[in-house]
Every structure is written in C-alpha cells, then in structure tokens.
Design brief:
Elements (H helix, E strand, L loop, with lengths): L4 H13 L4 H14 L7 H5 L2 H5 L4 E10 L5 E12 L5 E7 L5 H17 L6 E6 L8 H15 L8 E5 L5 H15 L23 H18 L7 E5 L3 H12 L3 E6 L3 E4 L6 H10 L5 H6 L4 E4 L11 E4 L8 H9 L4 E3 L8 H9 L3 E3 L1 H4 L2 H15 L5 H25 L6 H19 L4
Parallel strand pairs: 3-4, 3-5, 6-7, 6-10, 10-11, 11-12
Antiparallel strand pairs: 1-2, 2-4, 7-8, 8-9
C-alpha cells in the first residue's frame, strides 16, 4: 500500500483497531499518502512512535444527552467530544449536530482539525464534537433544552485553556448562545474564550459568521492567481450546500466577480442562470429555515432539481463543495471535467471521495483540501479568543484583513511544502505535510506523552 514500512505498519494497526470507522480510516490514509514523501527523512519519528501517537486521540468522551420534547416525551441522544491533539495549543474545533454523527465522523473531523489548526499558525490544537441530534424541525424550546443538556455534561471537559468548541453543521449562533448560557450558569464565570461563534453582545467577533466562506474564496483566489494567472472575475461558480459556509462563499465569490448559478441542500439543488439571488437565499435559509426548493417557487427563471449530488452536472468554471463529507464521487468529478471546470476548492471537510480527488488531480484541475481552504472559520475563532482575552473588539474590516492575510499565508505554506516535496502545485500534499511537520516538531520536543 505504502512504500514506507513504518507507514504500512501504523496504518495496519489503525485499520485493525478502527475497522468500523470508514471516515476516520479515509482521513488517515489520505494524510499518510502525503507523508510518504517525507517520512524517510525522519527516522526519529519511528524511534519514538510519533505516528502511532499522532493517529490516536488523546481523549475520547462519549455521553448520553437526555432532553424533553414539547409533548413531554423524554428523548435521548448521544454526545461526543474527541480531544485529538494538544501539542501546539488547547483543543479547538466545532460541534456538529446532525443525524449522521457517530464516532467515526467525529474522529475524522478531529484528525483533520489538528492539521487545519496547525496551518493557521495560531496556537490551537485539534478537537471535534457533536451529537446525532437534528435541530431541523425542532422548536426553539426543544433546541434550547437539548443544548442545555448537552452542555451540562460537556462543561466539565472544556475551558479556554483546555478545549474551546465552536459551531459546525447544525450548530449556528442560536445553538452556541444556548450552550454558552448554560456553561456560564454552571461555572459561575463569564469565560468568553470557552466557546467561539458567540453573539456580538457577549464576546463574539465581527466577521466570524462569514469567515469560513470568505476564507475559502480568499484561498481559492490566491490559488487561481498564482497557479493560473486568473481570478473569479467572470467565472461561473457552483456552490454545493446552503448552510453558513456555502452562503458566505457565494457572497464573497460574487463580490470577487464570480456568478453563482447553483446551490443545494440535502434533498436537491436550485439552478438560476442569472445568478443566485443571495438576498432571497439568505431570507429562505437564515430567517425562514426553509428548504432550498422554495427558491425556485419564488424566483422566476430558476428551477429545482431533486438529488443534491446532481449539482455537479451544472456547467461551471469553479466548484466549491460546501455541504458535507464524500458529497462528490467519481461521477460528479467526471461531470465537472467534461464541462470544462478549472478548479475544485473544498469548503466542507473531506467532501470529495479519494477516487474523485485522484481523477480531479490527474485531469489537471486545481484542487485544495478543506483542511487548507476552509481554515478561515477556525482562524477567525482564534481571533475571537484573542479579543476575549484582551477584553476588546476589532472592527469587521480589521478581522477581515487579518483573515485575508492568514488565508494567503496558508496558501503559501501549502505551495512551498508542495515544492519541497517535489510536487509543485499539489496543494493536498502541501497542506498535509506543512500542517503535520509543525505538530510533529512540537510532539518531538515534548517527549512521549
């Protein structure tokens, strides 16, 4: 499988131990394929079992979350927090509330988060958490009761110098606020840095809501400029998903001169040849919390198509997958290639299958992994933590400027590492190697812990 005996041995151990965790195995394999280019230069890693420790979370917490629905019935969900690696800082990573959440998904996300946070250059380790609770279709009171119950267990495992959660799929400003309120109530401290993505009136940061989507476009723009001598100007763009990341990726690439013609949710996608009306989209998704099919009912000239995976059949110059893991398979990649797409930049975590990535790269399209191109959200969470510690608030423009600088630096780190590995322009190799080397150096310095 790998040329390196060390990598083969460690991966075989992971595969045996975690055979029932496909998403986690997929994430580990992808990173190991990149590390094969550098592992032989570091025999000291094997001597101290570095990779064996790197793939194993420092701590896995699993707990029940009981709550009462509006009819008075007791419900029970399962909660998780995987504290993956704290070599370069306290654990940092989002909470996901979605029916698909299980330990494999949370471990893969935590594993990716370690490298993502390393790339930001901010002092943050990696972690991830969540629950199989689905906020969709729940009342405000039900969401509040669930969040309070979830935090009643989670609070004992987090802290601004230990582990700082944030939002992810299914966890927006509403859910973060309910969880923070319960944390504050239990510990009797206004510890703003314990969770990020907070409201502006209680320690949140301007531009945090937009950060992941905006950062994705800043990274993509830098790659287009440096590797293609091009930009978003005049480009047709397809953005999968319609949650927070997708919404603000669509907004920023529109500001940069692109035209977003298709967006999706879990049931299907809308196509608007004139360009998605973002004001209408935001109203549907942020205020009404409705299905994206409503867009086609209310915007003349647009159409709704069942099946979210079919979105990649829409002709575009740039694809921004911002929905969920493994949303684009080989068939989707083939459609993009056939329609002349020039680049795929991941806004979600691991949205392309390994086979789709291989096809995209072998066909000469630009490709960036989510751990690099969607790092703007966690980077701005780090900036929110800084503001909380300093007891001040920066303006939107200040935060946005810092975000742009961070994303440009992440791109440069990825590209420079790809050159050193003999794969210039392979941003997946660059992201994995650049992110890992920083963590590895810190782990080596701190001994066998």
């Amino acid at each position: 499988m790998f040329k390196s005996e060390y990598l083969n041995r460690v991966y075989a151990e992971v595969e045996h131990r975690d055979a029932h965790e496909p998403e986690f195995l997929q994430a580990v394999r992808e990173v190991f394929e990149s590390l094969e280019l550098v592992v032989d230069q570091h025999p000291e890693w094997e001597a101290v079992g570095l990779l064996e420790r790197f793939v194993e979370p420092e701590r896995v917490i699993e707990f029940r979350v009981p709550w009462v629905d509006d009819s008075g019935k007791t419900r029970v969900n399962r909660g998780y927090r995987v504290q993956y690696n704290s070599a370069i800082g306290p654990y940092k990573g989002g909470l996901r509330f979605h029916p698909s959440v299980n330990l494999s998904v949370i471990k893969f996300l935590g594993f990716e988060q370690v490298l993502k946070n390393s790339l930001t250059t901010l002092p943050m380790g990696g972690g991830k958490g969540g629950s199989d609770f689905d906020p969709k279709g729940k009342s405000e009171a039900e969401v509040m009761r669930f969040c309070q119950s979830f935090m009643t267990e989670l609070y004992r495992h987090i802290g601004q110098f230990t582990d700082t959660p944030a939002g992810d799929i299914g966890v927006g400003g509403r859910e973060v606020a309910y969880m923070y309120g319960q944390y504050k109530r239990i510990v009797d401290r206004f510890e703003g840095g314990v969770i990020t993505g907070k409201g502006l009136t209680f320690g949140g940061s301007l531009a945090r809501t937009q950060a992941t989507g905006y950062g994705l476009c800043y990274y993509a723009a830098e790659a287009l400029k440096h590797l293609k001598g091009d930009s978003f100007e005049g480009k047709t763009v397809v953005v999968s998903g319609s949650g927070n990341v997708a919404q603000y990726a669509a907004e920023k690439c529109t500001q940069l001169g692109g035209k977003v013609v298709a967006m999706s949710d879990s049931q299907g996608y809308v196509y608007d040849p004139k360009g998605i009306d973002l004001k209408k989209l935001f109203d549907i998704k942020q205020k009404r919390r409705a299905r994206i099919s409503v867009y086609a009912n209310e915007v003349p000239g647009s159409e709704y198509v069942e099946g979210c995976r079919n979105i990649w059949k829409v002709k575009c110059d740039v694809a921004l997958p911002c929905a969920s893991q493994n949303e684009m398979d080989v068939e989707g990649a083939k459609s993009l290639i056939a329609n002349g797409c020039m680049g795929v930049f991941e806004g979600a975590n691991m949205p392309l299958t390994p086979e789709a990535i291989a096809l995209i790269q072998s066909s000469g399209l630009l490709y960036s992994p989510g751990k690099a191109s969607n790092a703007g959200g966690v980077a701005t969470s780090g900036l929110e933590m800084t503001q909380n510690s300093m007891r001040l608030s920066w303006s939107f423009e200040e935060v946005d400027e810092k975000l742009q600088g961070i994303m440009k630096n992440i791109y440069k780190a990825c590209y420079d590492a790809s050159v050193k590995c003999g794969k210039p322009g392979d941003l997946m190799v660059g992201a994995n190697v650049a992110g890992f080397l920083k963590v590895a150096e810190a782990m080596m310095a701190q001994g066998v812990v």
